[in-house]
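assembly run, all chains below
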Amino acid sequence: MITKASWRDLNAILRLEQVCFAKDAWTFLDVAGALIGGDIIRFKATCGDELAGFAAAEIRKAEHAGWIITLGVFPQYRNQGIGSALLQTCEKALLPLKIRLCVSMKNNEAIHLYKNIGYREIGIWPSYYADHCDAIVMEKNEQETIPDAL
Ligand SMILES: CC(C)(COP(=O)(O)OP(=O)(O)OC[C@H]1O[C@@H](n2cnc3c(N)ncnc32)[C@H](O)[C@@H]1OP(=O)(O)O)[C@@H](O)C(=O)NCCC(=O)NCCS
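ok done. output:
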């Protein structure tokens, strides 16, 4: 089940960040900020009482974009469509904004998922991650035919 996340999910999301991102995991303040920030949407996937996954996106109006700032699913819940469902729930909530995200060049699983659901590469951020790996910047724009004034 996918529902809005709240500060009550803070501890479970901190555990998820550690499991998913190790050295790049969000700190307590990062997670707390994502759970209360005004320009941030956040959704969780639950199985029974357990957190299975979490995604958050930041609305950047000047850019006319919503940035997926985190997406993670606990290993035991992967490959069941939860990551895609979280992403697509964020996309719907962000419409009509275009969606952007960045992903480590080494993260084949996530790159595969993003390409599958319509994201395309628009840039590279060199040495973005803690291991100095480059980030691929990706975008999905359902409004491609509408001229972008920005
Ligand atoms: C990337 C990540 C979020 C994907 O989550 P996920 O829940 O496994 O993603 P999905 O299940 O939606 O998609 C993964 C695969 O499962 C398949 N799948 C989707 N629905 C399915 C279903 N109902 N049954 C079986 N398989 C399914 C998808 O098709 C996809 O593979 P395929 O397209 O080659 O077949 C997860 O691997 C993760 O948390 N990784 C660590 C953190 C991370 O890297 N986050 C991204 C940072 S940019």
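The helical segments are 10-21, 28-36, 82-94, 108-116.

The first strand starts at residue 2 and ends at 4.

not gonna interpret more than that til we talk
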